[in-house]
Amino acid sequence: MQATRGMQLHTKMAIGFAVGITAGVLANLYAADAGWLAALIRYVTDPVGQVFLRLLFMLVVPLVFSALVLGVIEIGDPRSLGRIGGRTLVYILVVTAIAVSIGLVAVNVIQPGRGLPPEVAETLLAESADRAADIAARGGAVSGMDLLINIVPRNPIASAANGDLIGVMFFALMFGIAATVIGSPGTRSFAGAVQGVYDICLKLIGWIIQLAPYAVACLLFGITAKLGFEVLVQLARYVGTVVLALGIHFFVVFPILVRVFGGMSPLKFLKGAEPAILTAFSTSSSSATLPTTLKCAEERLGVPRPVARFVCTLGATANMNGTALFEGVTVLFLAQFFGVELNLFQQVTILALCILGAIGAAGVPGGSLPVIAMILAMFGIPPEGIGLILGVDRFLDMCRTTVNVGGDLVGSVVVAKSIGTDDHMLPAEDGPAPSGAHGAVREV
Ligand code: ASP
After folding, report:
1. Any alpha helices (H) in 300-368, and if so which ranges?
2. 37-92 pLDDT, tens per residue?
3. How far apart are CA 77 and CA 335, in angstroms?
4. 157-211 pLDDT, tens per residue?
5. By CB neighbour count within 10 A (0-12 exposed, 13-18 middle, 19+ buried), where does 335 fall?
6. Do residues 335 and 381 make contact, with C-beta atoms less than 8 angstroms apart?
């Protein structure tokens, strides 16, 4: 995914971003009412953007299902990892929930998506009204008690077909738990097949993301041609909100965890984690950073090998604090942008979805985008909004991946400390790594 015929993908994306915005703003200024502009948007830029979004949607169900099943199987292998699994799971859930909460508070306080002139907001809403109504009618925007009951799908295939991500996630979690408990040859070959599905999804994401530069140009052209310059100001506020919230998690929450629960000085931690943090920042991929993360945990932070191997390998795809935070901020930002009101209950649902979504996202550049597209659709927020954020996504991806990998290392220090010197809780040094499942995927 790195280089595409000489030019890096993210450079191409930046060019697509600049071309789409410049052409769109110019069109908005000089040809807002022209017939050719409407035709261009209708027959060229919109369809290209739509196809790209559909390709992302296409992968959501197999990706989320396979990632969650494999995640549970990895966590739950009682023979090789004893109580490390339980502690790691608690760590992942609690710290990811903290990360999403910081993001949600930041986006509610700063409100980066508000402030669009009312007439522009109305146009946007009117344009997406049909689709939003359709999604709502299919059960994507239910609220109250229904949302709780609907966590358990009546028919998982129908949930997948209707874009009911919570139902799919619940089904996948149950499947993974049962497969772990049984542990028979049959369930092991099932896990192998699911690993195959996951690997295929990763490959497809790699191909689809190559189209992103063109899709970014088209989606941004469409949006800026309709809305003009105001939209860019909001984008800058959105980037600021994400970076601020990620910064709070990285520079406030992590040091507290390292000091209080890990018994280590935050400065020593940062020094030890530096190579992994730099690799994460430059590759935007937790999976590609995994070898460096493991090295840092074992050799520079002194985490016992079995703990480092389990927590960091699993964490590379399942423990994504930065991704969860980013998903929460992005969904709420786009909801504000498109004028979709979300009540507290819906925001709490989004929190839960972001935690699971981060576990289900792949540790590759842009791995969280399919999940975001799906959450947007569930709440009646036009998924085209993704076009807005794609152009700035490379930078945000670098920042959130840094937080993801930092979180894995903090987790390894905290879990190691909580186990202390109870050697009987550690599996043998040369025991099987929690591999076979998605944590072991290292290629981008
Ligand atoms: N790039 C992120 C990672 O590898 C995933 C994402 O949020 O897109 O950790």
Report:
1. 305-318, 321-337, 344-360
2. 989 988 999 899 888 878 877 877 887 788 778 877 876 655 555 567 788 889 99
3. 40
4. 998 887 666 788 789 888 888 888 888 999 999 999 999 998 898 788 778 878 8
5. buried
6. yes
Residues in the chain: 444
* Cα–Cα dist 60/370, whole Å: 6
What does pTM read for this prediction? 0.73
Tell me if 363 CB under 6 Å of ligand 1: yes
Kindly state the tokens that stand for 331.
């969904």
Chain-centre distance of CA 288, in angstroms?
Answer: 16
Indicate whether residue 320 lines ligand 1 (CB < 6 A). Answer: yes
Residue whose tokens read 């709780």: 148
Task: Tell me the CA distances in angstroms from 241 to 106, 230, 325, 329, one per residue in order.
Answer: 7, 17, 11, 8
268-294 burial code (b ≥16 CB/10 A, e <16) = ebbebbebbbebbbebbbbbbbbebbb
Calculate the CA dihedral of residues 357, 195, 401, 442 and round it to 10 degrees.
180
Q: How far is CA 92 from CA 314, 364, 384, in A?
A: 10, 19, 31
Domain 2-425 has CATH 1.10.3860: yes
Q: Is the CB of 194 under 6 A from ligand 1?
A: no
Among 96, 281, 287, 397, which is best to mutate for testing ligand 1, by the most ligand atoms less than 8 A from CB?
397
Helical axes 305-318 vs 344-360, angle rounded to 10°: 120
